[in-house]
Description:
Strands 1-2-3-4-5 form a 5-stranded mixed sheet. The protein has 2 helices and 5 strands; from the N terminus they run ββββαβα. The chain has helices spanning 53-67, 77-85, and strands at residues 11-13, 16-21, 24-33, 36-44, 71-74. Keywords: Transferase.
Amino acid sequence: MKPEFENTPLVKAGKRFEIEIDGHFAFIDYREMGHQIALVHTETDPELAGTGAATAVVEKTLAYIEENGKKLLPFCPYVFAYIKKHPDWKRIVDERFEGYNKL
């Protein structure tokens, strides 16, 4: 994560995790089912494109999931690709997730 995002708080708002930078948002839509959190879609406002905000919201959300003892279902292609690139995060993916062996 870029240093400029380290102190940006992660907010759980409605059905999404989000960070706000200068009035613009990077967010992940999610569904929570008991001990599992499914990450469905990652998006940033166009003004944040290329800034690293999407990576920051993913990293902060993965840390939240781990800190809260939940298991991840990475349905979002961006999150899936992030975990594939950073396999140490596979530790929080639910082993029953269909694509687990592809991570």
